[in-house]
Design goal:
With 332 residues, this protein is an alpha/beta fold. The chain contains 14 helices and twelve strands. Helix content is 40%, strand content 17%.
């Protein structure tokens, strides 16, 4: 475990700036947001609604209050269980090189935020397929805090920085990550986030009113933003039912809808989920309050990153251990 050497008060300025950046992206009237949404419709092929949902999911988890809570959690760890780290150096010298994905255009923002929080320079290499959002995010930093923005740099060519950065964080296909890893020298700390899939589960107790409008909206919030291309998108929706089901309203409301499968008892479903290991990232559920601890216990050996209610799958907190990786540990 890590502990911050400096007090929370010394980080207030950077936290306030990052929170202000989130406010910018959550403001429907902000010109930069509007300009970026229009450009992203071209670079991603996503609809305006899908892009807006992705922005809301990302930046509502990066508000000033939530970043403050994340940093404060380090101060709550017992000193004899932790290794101290310093934060917020006046002039960040070490850099973290991020190779960005092309499909889920906000997937890297949590990692970039943590990089800045812990006093590092943040180098961003956008995908050639989606070069828009990284530059727009840096521009939003410039509008809020020009000094902090100077610690962010957009990189056009990856090769030199793969060889000289002390930390490399990369997103992409498994094949892409293998290629990147082969270019990283020994001793460089590397985190690769490759192909993953997620699933949703609707238990019987959530079906008192059948496949309701409320359930429909919760599944839509998880499935719509990236057309099932993100690692947190529910590619399969398991529904506890004794007979096969279709959900025409869901199919009609999405460009790409999750595949629906039914199950009659957990003892049958659990082995099927195990077949997806180690590629299972998140399990979203609808059911009783006991279902989250139940699933965490039953799936603990599958090394999934998150269990959460349906409707929250695309909204990981800043403390999320994507792929089991705790990024502050990697940085230090």
């Amino acid at each position: 475990m890590l502990r911050l050497r400096r007090s929370l008060s010394e980080m207030k300025e950077i936290i306030r700036s990052l929170g202000a950046v989130s406010e910018l992206w959550l403001d429907p009237q902000h010109p930069l947001r509007e300009e970026t949404i229009q450009a992203l419709q071209v670079s991603t092929g996503l609809s305006r609604r899908q892009i807006e949902l992705a922005l809301i999911n990302c930046f509502e988890e990066l508000t000033t209050a939530k970043i403050t809570s994340y940093i404060a959690s380090f101060e709550q760890v017992e000193r004899n269980n932790v290794r101290e780290i310093s934060t917020c150096s006046k002039e960040a010298t070490q850099c973290v090189f991020h190779v960005l994905p092309s499909n889920a255009f906000t997937a890297w923002v949590h990692g970039a935020t943590i990089t800045l929080l812990f006093g590092f320079r943040c180098l961003l290499k956008p995908s050639r397929r989606e070069p828009v959002f990284a530059r727009a995010w840096k521009k939003s930093l410039e509008q809020v805090d020009s000094r902090l923005a100077r610690r962010v740099e957009i990189i056009d060519e990856a090769d030199p920085w793969l060889r000289k950065s002390p930390v490399v964080v990369a997103y992409g296909s498994d094949e892409t990550l293998l290629k990147i890893r082969s270019m990283v020298p020994a001793g460089v700390r590397f985190a690769g986030f490759g192909h993953k899939l997620s699933v949703g589960i609707i238990f019987q107790e959530a079906l008192n009113e059948g496949l309701s409008d409320e359930l429909l909206e919760r599944v839509r919030e998880d499935a719509e933003p990236f057309r099932l291309q993100g690692c947190l998108s529910p590619q399969i929706l398991y529904i506890e039912s004794a007979s096969p089901l279709r959900w025409p309203a869901l199919e009609a409301s999405l460009d790409v809808a999750p595949k629906i499968k039914t199950f009659t008892e957990w003892e049958i479903l659990r082995p099927e989920l195990a077949k997806f290991s180690p590629y299972l990232s998140c399990v979203g559920y609808a059911g009783g309050v006991d279902k989250e601890p139940f699933l965490e216990h039953e799936l603990r050996d599958l090394n999934i990153s998150r269990v959460c209610p349906l409707g929250r799958m695309q909204r990981p907190p800043l403390s999320w251990k994507n792929g089991g990786i705790f990024l502050p540990d990697l940085l230090h």
